[in-house]
Each structure stands twice: as C-alpha cells, then as structure tokens.
Amino acid sequence: MRDAAPALAEPLLWMAVPRSVRNNRTLSSLLLLGGGLAALLSWGPTTRNAGGRQMATINLIQPISSSPRGFQPLVPSAPSARSPDLIAGDFAHRPIQYPASRAVEVRAPVTAAAAPRVPEGTPQVEPLPIRQRPRRNRRSPVAREMFAETVLTAANFIWPVFVHDGEEDIPISSMPGVSRLGVDTGLLRGVEEAVKLGVKSVVIFPKTPDELKTPTADEAYNPEGLAQRAIRNVKQAFPEVVVYTDIALDPYNSLGHDGIVRSDGVILNDETIHQLCKQAVSQAEAGADYVSPSDMMDGRIGAIRDALDAAGYSNVGIMAYTAKYASAFYGPFREALDSNPRGPGEDWVVPPDKKTYQQNPANWREALIEARLDEEEGADILMVKPGMPYLDIIKGLHDQSNLPIAAYHVSGEYAMLKAAALNGWLDEKAAVMEALLSLKRAGATVILTYYALQAAKWLKEDEA
Ligand SMILES: NCc1[nH]cc(CCC(=O)O)c1CC(=O)O
What we know:
An eight-stranded parallel β-barrel has the order 1-4-5-6-7-8-9-10, surrounded by eight helices. The longest helix has 19 residues, at 25-43. It has helices at residues 4-16, 19-22, 25-43, 47-57, 84-88, 141-146, 186-196, 226-237, 270-286, 300-310, 331-337, 365-377, 391-400, 411-422, 428-442, 452-463, and strands spanning 157-164, 170-171, 179-182, 201-206, 242-247, 290-293, 317-324, 381-385, 405-409, 446-449. It is 38% helix and 11% strand. The chain is globular. Helix 1 (4-16) packs parallel to helix 4. The protein has two domains: 4-66; 154-463, TIM Barrel (Alpha-Beta Barrel). Bound molecules: ligand PBG.
C-alpha cells in the first residue's frame, strides 16, 4: 500500500517538469536524482520500488531494459465480454509478441478463439518505448467513427443533370451510367429518385439543338428555352428541391465558347456579361434558387448580382465558379452537350481551347484573386473546378474565405473512376467514396458530382 503513493505521485510530478528539461539528459538526470533522494527521505524502504517506477516513466531517456524492474508491458486490460466492437478490433491482432517469461503480465483478450499467434519467424522484440501510439484511436469501428473528422452526407451533394428536348434517356458514351434526360420525363423521374435518396439539390445543363445556336447565344435567355423549362418543371413538381443553373454561353453558342467570339479570336468580356445578365434574370424568373456563372469572364458576379437585384431577385443566390481551370477533364461533358469549341471558320478565328478565360492549371495564387473578387462582388458560394486534381485550391479558398466552398467532381473524374471500375481495376464504391470524401476534407461542403445518387445509395446502405 505504502509504495502506491510515490509510484503515482512521482510520475505526475515528473510530468510537471517542462518538456525541454525532461528532454535534456543531464538536467533530467539531476532532477531525477533529487527526486529519488526526496523519496528516500520521505518514504524509506519503499523507495527502491518507487525508483524503479520512476525509471519507467523516463523511458524516453533511459533504455527501458536498464530499469531495475525490467519493462512493464503497456498492455490494454482485457475488454469485457460485453464490448463486441473492441473484441472485433485490433486486440486480436497485437503485433508484438511479449517474451514468454513475462507472459503473466499479458492479459489475454476475452474471446472464444485461442490465444493469438504470430507467424513463424516474427522477430521477438521488447515493446518499444513509444508513448504516443496513434493506432490506439483506430482500434475499433466505434472509435474510428467517433474520431472521424469528416462525414459525407447526401445533403452535401448537388446532382448535375443533362436535359434535352425529347422523351428518351440518351446514354452518354464517355460517361457510362449517365444520360441526357427528357426535360418533361426522365428529368422528373431522376429528381424524384434523388429526393428519395436525400439528394435535394440539382444543377441543370441543357443540350441545345444545333439550329438554336448562334454566335451571340441569344437562346440562353429564351424564357421557353430548355434550361428554363427544366427549372420550372423541377420547381413545380418538387418545390423543396434547390435548383442551381449554369450561366455561360457555350451550350447556346454556335462557336462553342463561353463568351462571344470576335473575328480575331478574342473572347469578348463585357459584351458577354451583358448576355449573361439576361440569362441569369431569365433563369431566376423560371424559378432558379442559385445561378452559377461558369464562364470566368471578369466582373460577371457583380454585374449578375446587380441585374438580379434590379429585377427583384435579391433572394436568388450566386454560386460562382471562382477557380475554374482550363482542364482536360471536361471532355465527356463537352461530348454530353456537344459544346466543344468549333474549328476555325474561313474568316473567323475560333480558339481551340478556353485558356484566355479559364485559369492556368499551374496557378493557385491567382485563385485567391478570383476568390477575393467574387466575394466582393456578392457571390454566395465559391466553387473550385475540377475537384481531385485541385484539392490544394479547395483548401486554399477554404482557408481564405468564410463563404461555403463548392467542388465540382467533373465529368472526366467520373469517367476515370467508371472506366477503372468497369475494368475491374478499382473497387468502385470504395474509390468513389474516398474521392468525394477528399473533396469535403479539403474544405468543400458542396460537392457537385455525377455520382450523387449512387453515392447517396451507398451511404444509405452503410447506415442500414
Ligand atoms: N461553361 C460550361 C461548363 N459548365 C460545366 C462544365 C464542365 C463540367 C464537367 O466536365 O463535368 C463546363 C465545360 C467547360 O467549361 O468546357
């Protein structure tokens, strides 16, 4: 009984010594010597034991084997028979086998199975003097769930849908599992399914018939246009669903660019914004909750904000494609909407890419400029696009702005995962959930993904 007090008190006192002193070999030896003497005076015959325990508390400085009592394996006490999670955890797989002579100190876990064995040839080692063992918090499923820093839910997803003016669902070859949906048919079936799965936000992309495309993309603000019809249809059938739209001219532009193309190949900025404002107001009129400018023209967020407010739509939000990169990962999307930049005409230069307005993938500081401008101009959500190749940008914007951050897991990212999964090269569910989780962990609370419905299903599956 008598030695219990110093055995507890001295390590505690030791912990009160500043770490810098503890880590200094000479200083700490002196201190320990003093501590030992003090213990000797106050506790008489029990100090030898106390000293032994003292040594055990400083095993980062003193090799543990030199301790008079030898090492004392830090073995977790046996889990009770009532905690199946712990039993199912790593207790059954302790990596270190303790030397036989000390086996009495190793209490076996309470399981029906025989004592755990190690493979023949496993080196016999004394437990290392490791105080911080992060694996402790990963031992059981319950603990892992408790300590999860990021949790993905269906409420985080926005489901992007391609719509067309027809009845059928038309599969998109580079995106197996994704189709263009009929604006009055498949779209509503799809949204109904989404809602059932807990995905209550959609973003609409119209496949405009070629004959309606013009170099000034005026179809973009046709009140009876495909996007406007889609918005109305969804809001009418599912008023609680939050409808996001795309603001850019490319689906309506006969030259395939997000802005109006001048004959020398310059993508006009301010003239394009004029059209974007009309597009935004017409989408708001149709019932959009958020309009999402995806074109990367300068100053469009402020202009659209003013246009919406002037038209009485101050409650309609703006999800700004803040840092949208000139990425190769949009390929399948452009196939879905047939919206690739067109080849050059005889007397018209049409740039083959979008590099004069979308950001250079080499840059991240530039994204901060865009973020500051969008924030000042009245954006409600800042988006980064694509997702996985730009996790640093997501994190950067998350750390610099207090607005919600969105990440677009784009068509090419979907196609990559799908292709690997269809080939049997990846476990689709595990890989997709990890990809989506990484976007949230980086700082995105809003995730646009073609996997939204499938991921929501998987989440439900895991709940059950
Ligand atoms: N402004 C058009 C737009 N809006 C969303 C995407 C891409 C989405 C995806 O790839 O999933 C694009 C394509 C582009 O910029 O060329």
